[in-house]
Design a protein that fits this description.
- The chain has a five-stranded antiparallel beta sheet. Strands 1-2-3 form a three-stranded mixed beta sheet.
- It folds into two domains: 2-89, RimP-like superfamily, N-terminal (GMP Synthetase, Chain A, domain 3), CATH 3.30.300.70; 100-161, SH3 type barrels (Roll).
- It is an alpha+beta fold.
- The chain contains three helices and eight strands; from the N terminus they run αββαβαβββββ.
């Protein structure tokens, strides 16, 4: 049973990567950024979720326009062999950070980082993103204590902006 699940998970990863290669240029040609693409089963249905952004944020009408533009590309590519729902939305204030250039772009901002393997006995880190070192590793000024942590990008499970909200 584990082998079947592993193959299924690999199929999802390969399909997601192929979908991203297909849709990223379409979204970028429209003047937007494809922040993340997620393909998952939720409540018994498949959901293809695109998180799209642009400087200053994205509107609901722009999300609808992206949805209308990518739909024909999805139909022609015929990569999804099950019924699915396409959702296009903003990444929100806890925007995921997926690519090395995003860590450079959002340097100086507070982030939350989850690693695949423990570093110094922990897998979750919060602090200020200091960008990347010359080796392409994430530099983090960890809170509390302002300890500088070096995290290999390849060792990240997930990372996102983690703004401090003050009311």
């Amino acid at each position: 049973m584990k082998a079947h699940f592993f193959c299924f998970a690999m199929d999802i990863l390969l399909t997601s990567a192929t979908l991203e290669k297909l849709l990223r240029p379409v979204v970028e040609d429209m003047g937007f950024e494809l922040v993340d693409l997620q393909l998952r089963s939720e409540s018994g249905r498949w959901v293809l979720r695109l998180l799209v952004d642009r400087p200053g944020g994205i509107t609901l009408d722009e999300c609808a326009r992206v949805s209308r533009e990518v739909s024909p590309h999805l139909e022609v590519a015929d990569l999804l062999h099950a019924r699915y729902v396409l959702e296009v939305s903003s990444p929100g204030i806890k925007r995921p950070l997926k690519r090395a250039e995003e860590f450079v772009r959002f340097a100086g901002q507070r982030v939350e980082v989850f690693t695949t393997e423990p570093l110094d006995g922990q897998k979750t880190f919060r602090g200020t993103n200091l960008g990347l070192d010359e080796g392409g590793n994430l530099l983090l000024d960890e809170e509390p204590g302002h300890r500088r942590i070096v995290i290999p990008i390849a060792g990240l499970r997930r990372a996102n902006l983690d703004p401090e909200l003050k009311f």
